[in-house]
Amino acid sequence: MMFLHRQLESALRRRLREAPAVVLLGPRQVGKTTLARSVAGDWPGGAIYLDLERPADRRRLDDADAYLRSQSARLIVLDEIHRYPALFEILRGIIDERRSSGARYGRFLLLGSAGIELMRQASESLAGRVAYLDLAPLSLAEVAPQGTTAEKLWLRGGFPESLLAKTNRLSLAWRRDFIRSYLERDVPMFAPRLPAQTVGRLWLMLAHQQGAVLNLSRLAASLGVSVPAVTRYLDLLVDLRLLRRLTSWSGNLGKRLVKAPKIFIADSGLVHGLLEIETLDDLLGHPVAGASYEGWVIENLIAAAGSRFQASFFRSHGGAEIDLVLERGGVPQIAVEVKRSSAPSPSTGFAQACEDLSISRRYLVYPGAEVFPVRHNTQALGLAQLAEKLAKEAKRSD
Fold it and tell me: What global pTM score does this model have?
């Protein structure tokens, strides 16, 4: 299978040189192991990889303290670390001992799929000793150099196995199996009290409502469960990095603003898998096409912006709206409207919202490559161009 360079690799290597341990989070099959092996392959002093879901690797940790200390010269990669929570206390002792001898750079790379649980375990034992990084599905900036088109990435999503499948049919089959495995395996593992079938129904409902403002009461009524139950289901999907809650901009403008978040399934391919959309023609003729494209663009831009910006959306009850607001230090700096149109034009509501927030950097992302000015002091451009701008700014701030 084609190797795709991940933009997070440089940040991961840097954090391993700076922090005693690094936790790499991301959904299953997103490429965490491949990235970890790439880093480990040329790590000074060598590296060792342990998959804690494999009994053979778990047996090597029967005396974990002695084994890990015996590998002190190597980078130790521990995959599915949540399977062995007792390791966190052992890691703390080893890290503190190394710190006292003057060694501060990383010797441990911990991989996991469930963010909240893993971060809770790590924070209890490794507070101040661990850095966190999130690996998202493949972005356009990562796949375009290999010749993958934007349309293919949008249709199939950014999970490597799905994107690189030989045909659309095989790609869709992989995503069906992926969704099923999460419902049959991960939901019972991470939330044994939540009925997987109900979580699956919620997931499908969210695909039909991609990018909608969250209405807990309506979802609860449709599922026949309580509002707190729906909240728990959503928390689980967010924790598994499968769902994004895009928060509403929360500043004080003296106007009535929509406060509920927007909900996006984080990978466009999963949206299409849930809705049984196999080809680009099927997608373009489906009612979800516009919302799916918006969510895909937003995910790519958030990935490009990195930690430099905080992302939100803006909507007032008067009709002013911005699909994506990027702010820094609490100050909105960039406004993005997304339109899947060959002749894009920003809406009056977008212009009004930009005036309300005093944003001068205004962009309209459309499915093209030409850059040109449009009305309301806005620049129209393709996703690749804006993602490159944001990535350059993020790199300068590192």
Answer: 0.91
